[in-house]
Design brief:
Layout: H1 2-21, H2 25-53, H3 56-77, H4 82-99, H5 101-104, H6 106-120, H7 124-128, H8 132-135, H9 148-152
Length: 153
């Protein structure tokens, strides 16, 4: 019985290792972790300010933090869109600085680092099934980037 339990643990560990190698886990987790202080600041401000001036900044801060959180989650679940989601994280840092003070700047730094890790990440397994195939031309004779995603890099 202990032998089958040991094989089961090794099997789970191997499956997790395979899953982790096909995704930018560290970048996605940093993006998710960066959204947490942004939520906290929005909710902290909501508790103190909602009765004084309304909640437009608070709602905008929650929307931006939610967008960053979803970019991190989708980075982990859909690794073929990692490049686009990295850009989404970088773009959403700017409004987060206005609406949530960047999660007291700590959250913005985590999102900045995580998004850059997502942009730098590449995998041969994911590249075979990437949306890049749909956006690039089949003309291999040209030396210039031919697809929309290749122009971004």
């Amino acid at each position: 019985m202990s032998n089958s339990n040991h094989n089961s643990k090794e099997s789970r560990r191997q499956r997790f290792t395979d899953w982790r190698q096909r995704r930018p886990v560290f970048g996605g987790l940093l993006v998710i972790l960066g959204s947490v202080p942004m939520y906290y600041v929005s909710i902290l401000i909501a508790k103190d300010v909602i009765f004084l001036r309304g909640g437009s900044f608070i709602i905008a801060g929650l929307v931006v933090a939610s967008g960053i959180f979803l970019a991190g989650v989708f980075t982990l679940t859909r690794p073929e869109y990692t490049t686009i989601l990295g850009y989404v994280g970088l773009v959403l840092i700017v409004p987060s600085l206005v609406f949530t003070l960047g999660g007291l700047v700590i959250g913005a730094l985590f999102v900045l680092l995580g998004s850059n890790l997502c942009l730098a990440w590449e995998s041969e397994v994911v590249e075979q099934h990437s949306p890049r195939e749909l956006l690039t031309n089949d003309d291999e004779s040209s030396d210039e980037p031919s697809g929309l995603l290749d122009r971004w890099r």
